[in-house]
Amino acid sequence: MQINSLSTPYILTADIGGSHITVGICDLRTYTISEQSTIRIEVDSKGSATSILISWTSAFEKILKETVALPIPGLGIAMPGPFDYENGISYIRGLNKYEALYGMNIKQYFADLLKIDPQLVRFRNDAESTIAGEVLTGAGKGHQRLMGITLGTGFGSAYSENKITRDINLGSEPYKKSIADDYFSTRWFLKRYHELTGISLTGGVRELSELATKSTVARDIFKEFAINMIDFLSGPVKQYGPEVLIICGNIAKASQFFLPYLTNELNSITIKLAQLDENAPLIGAAAMFDDMMRLAPFNSVNQL
Predict the structure, then answer these.
(1) Residues 261 and 166 in one domain
(2) What's the whole-model pTM score?
(3) Residue-wise burial string across 24-34, b where 16 or more C-beta atoms lie within 10 A, e elsewhere
(4) What tens digit of pLDDT does each residue of 54-75 get?
(5) Is residue 298 included in any domain, yes or no?
């Protein structure tokens, strides 16, 4: 049986990261996440399938317990790849995370857990979800053509036109000696700092940004990062012609050390930092139910 509409505007939504799961409730009428409806749980993504699923289950059980009076008509999930987003099957391997779930039908697992039809469990690439969320109600709101990038443990990207957002996977594009993902992610910063100083940082880009307030070496690394990004993004910016470039992810929190270079050189577009933080992927994943929302039978439902 085809399910065509929603019974309420409240979608259960989740963001599955490399070390956590965040679960919340999104109101599709306003694309907002209620603060009291958000739960984040740490996950050992290198652990067994059983331990991973137990952590995920715990997050959903907690959120459903706190919103017991609220009917949940569907689940949207922001998920890293490689992943069969249509059928909900994980093909993550060789990335030091979630390898124990390789080949597993995650869609059916969540449908059984929540006792809902598998049609009502939908997956979306995590970077695409993040940028879609920013387009709908964050830094991209009000713009027609946007490109977004996510900077963190990996390099994600998406293009959006008239609020239709799709993954463009720039991280897999060839760049210099390998691919772009190797140059625009946390591991590049750590590798480069070690090459120049012989010191291994354990605090990621956050630690490097703290050093940059007093270390010329650290500041030069951020400048090199910016020069590489200008070089790489010039092609996609010309190809897609966005009005706005949105920068998302944890590395964006150190933007004061690289954003001025980008703004100066990529001056054909407006560059904005993300505004929604962890809510962006939750909103973007929930927005996969917009098609059903338009046909919803309800007129008004009390907000959370």
Answers:
(1) yes
(2) 0.90
(3) bbbbbeebbbe
(4) 999 999 989 888 766 567 789 9
(5) no
